[in-house]
Amino acid sequence: MSRKLLLSATALAAGILSAPAFAQDAATAPQVQDQAPDTVTDSAAQDQAQQAGNSEAIVVTGSRIRRPDLESASPVAVIDAQQIQSQGIVNTQDLLQKLPQIGIPGLSRTNSNFLTTGNGVATLNLRNLGDSRTLVLVNGRRFVPGVAGTSIVDVNNIPADFVERIDVVTGGASSIYGSDAIAGVVNYVLRTDLQGVVARAQYGITDKGDNPNYTASITAGTKFGADDRGSVIVNGTYSKDLGLLSRKRAISAEDCSAAGCGPQSYSSYPAQGRFQLFNGDTASTNAGGYASNLFTFNPDNSVVTGFPTGYGFNRNAVRRISTPVERYLAAASAQYEFSPAATLFLEGTYAKTKSSSQIEALALDSQLDVGAGYAIDNPFIPAAIRQQIIARNSDGIASNDVTSIQFRRRQNEVFSRSNRNDRDTFRIAGGLRGDIAPKWSYEASAVYGQLKEVTSSQDINIQRYAQALDAVTDASGSIVCRDAAARAAGCVPINLFGYDTASPAASAYVRSELPRQVNIKNTQFVANASVNGSLFALPYGDLQVAFGGEYRREKSSEDWDALTNAGLNSGNQTPDTVGSFNVKEVFGEVDVPLLKGLPFVESLSLQGAARYSDYSTIGHVFSWNAGGEYSPIRGLRFRGNYAVANRAPNIGELFSSASETFPSVNDPCDGTTATSTGTYAAACRAIPAVAAAVANGGTFQYTLADIQGINGFDGGNRNLSEEKGKTLTFGAVIAPDQVRGLSLTVDYFNIKLDNAIGIVPRSTSIQQCLLTALPQFCNNVIRNPNTGFIRTVNAQNVNIADTKTSGIDVNLRYGRALGLMDDDRLDFSVLYTHTISYKSQSDPSAPVTSGVGNLEFGGVFRDKVNATATYAAGPFSLNWTVTYLSPMVDTVREEFAEFAADLDPEIAAHNEIGSRVYHDVQLRARAGEHMDWFVGVNNLFDRKPPKLEDTVFYGNITGTTTAADIYDPIGRRFYFGAQVRF
């Protein structure tokens, strides 16, 4: 569908449908009550409020200065409580992902099944610049991170029914809110005022009868004290999403590869095992590998020679498309006005989240993972195979001898490596605010938050596994472990020859006594104080200022079990990470009215803000922004803003413990002689030790031992500096008096991210150090000064990447009473982003890639539209939401690129991903004064996701055979529920 056709269809739909309350005529728009600082929005609808004469001073998200006009120099998108309800939203991530400004989430239910931690976490990614560059606030204040070592917030912890509104400010906002706001701010404004009780229950299920989800919520509030000076509101929410198995959808029911989907692509690590008669003579043509002398088993455990197609393991049969998530949420907000000069406020949130992953059992390789296979005298060896071994070892041909049996086998009956996650998050914020003088007010607040997460799974002890593989028959005829010490410690021999042959006792022995487990703890403390008001009067208004200070302390730890620390289980060796930092900041903001009420100058003003930060880790950082607004006539306003934002490196990037590895790398100098030519020859000979080696006709050459001795370290880097983002926005706001209820904003944005933190591949560091001698490469490569051989190649975090993006945002809103009935109303809104460019470079030597329309290099849609319309009449309302995603391509992985022309034409055609249009609809009915019933359908027309074969394309999520974090992998979903007020 073209953009013109889509927008035309949306406008036509507006003739019979309607939109949320925030687009109402100003005369009927709800009043904002007792908002916490930094919480009120700037949308085009704000101009309507201004026309209606709303003069109450409030604070706009993205500024600390109180204004009566609700205007901002930066564009803000708004989602209000009615829109959340009108789409049956349980988790706010699902709604925000539809916004054009929001990119691919780093973590969601549909892309986190295969992670070692973070399964089911829900994050936000503005402008596709990364979750860590999107600052999520609650009532304008920070929320404790939900991911170890980062600033990333898990929005699972924010109950949807306690949200009054969500404001999305794109572009740099570090001067107002501090680090992490390079891409912008998502500010959750919680409810602060309610008289009575509101209860809601909702149930959802797909049209295939799976992926059920349940939600129940109750919110209660009251006022108290003289003149109702005090108020309190509380919420309790329970929700459960049971997830979805990959085999429940045809697109992901079977493993896929370059050969297509089905048995030909099944894993060669089967449940019954894939075995090989192994010859230890590495010079023999029969030695090692998995190319000959194979055997496996039928379902009755009879021996099958070779490994025929169809005997592999279908991993997708046990994987998940989406992870199950269960949430218990509690939230409260209270305030009491002692006097105009002192209002005490308090807010708290607690969330218990349970989630889990489900992936196939471990694929174990006897040589690579255990370092040992079956000895040829093992009593578990099937008789038919034993006869083959005897025949080969007695034929007098040494190269034909069998020294062991090596294998690949899925550990189905031995242990499950699927994760179980248990997270507890709480946050409490409180403070005092009030007026301290005419036109002056203040606020002082403190926030403390804590996350505790335990992620665990079963695992094996590699040492015990090797002991259990080595079995003999004792004098009594019993099969026992060969090692006497192991037997004394309880060793039980393990039989892996065939389906379900590992006994429960043997499986229990090789499993680690304690689970593979990580304990994560994040803590955050923030203290903030600010004042704002009129510094002095100018001819056309007061010069408004805000200034204050902030202190923040954060700490994060990841504590892994002892076997994981030692690398003695099935996973990689992983050290613990502990780190902390603090930052002291001062900030200020100014709003200067220059002209007002003149011909062709309805208003003209300038704004600016600055923040100076002193980090315990990186030292001093300065961020600022400057902007202005010009309104030539009533109903037309031009605005622009330029911001320089910063992101300090997080705890994980700084303090992740270095873990040693022995990488497979090549030195371009290997084989260099005095007469060598080529790209690197001259640079190699410039190394003194290489020059000495090639003198007099010598050759600089590694031995196998030299290559195998090269090590390296992965992990954090305490020498990192801050990332820098520069954002330019300018646009226009149109809200003409002549067309009541209409508003239109059009804004251009341009964001440049410099000095971004990334990891340089080891091969790139070696090559570019020789070619450029730049420290960002050469600091990773350490050569022996005496021999010239590479000794160490590190792959640690460095400030090296760049990203640039630009585009146009359009926000159209219109609402009016139709007059067809006494109380009917039509409203609609359209949010549209056209991305002009998205280019990134991982390091100065890497090619510049374009992510617009390409899943591999950023997954940025050229055009993304979210249109919502609602028609309300009497007790009924009908809401219709349309989301448009423009076409994409998904590049074939590098290892298949040279064979791309030979791919099955059907598979190759999947590279071209057509546009997608999703329709969501909800019908709502009021039954009396106290109850609403609602029923809805998401993905009404069951639009299928694109098929992207596993291992072939970049954009698929393992187990889903599609880009499940971008496109809907689940299909048509129904929900119904009720809301009661009393």
UniProtKB/TrEMBL annotation:
> Where in the sequence does UniProt note compositional bias of the Polar residues kind?
32-43
Q: Which PROSITE patterns match?
A: TONB_DEPENDENT_REC_3 (PS52016)
Membrane topology for this entry? Multi-pass membrane protein
Q: Does the keyword Transport apply?
A: yes
Hey, what's the signal peptide range on this chain?
A: 1-23
Indicate where this protein resides in the cell: Cell outer membrane
Tell me a GO cellular component. Answer: cell outer membrane
Q: Which Gene3D superfamilies match?
A: TonB-dependent receptor, beta-barrel domain (2.40.170.20), TonB-dependent receptor, plug domain (2.170.130.10)
Q: Which InterPro entries match?
A: Beta-barrel_TonB, Beta-barrel_TonB_sf, Plug_dom, Plug_dom_sf, TonB-dep_rcpt-like
Which residue ranges does the record assign to the TonB-dependent receptor plug domain? 71-185
Superkingdom of this entry's organism? Bacteria
Does the record carry Heme as a key word?
A: no
Positions of the region Disordered?
28-57
Ranges of residues in domain TonB-dependent receptor-like beta-barrel: 406-940
Cite the entry's keywords alphabetically. Cell outer membrane, Membrane, Receptor, Signal, TonB box, Transmembrane, Transmembrane beta strand, Transport
Q: Which family does it belong to?
A: Belongs to the TonB-dependent receptor family.
PANTHER family per the record?
A: PTHR47234, TONB-DEPENDENT RECEPTOR
Q: What is this protein called?
A: Outer membrane receptor protein involved in Fe transport
Source organism per UniProt: Sphingomonas abaci
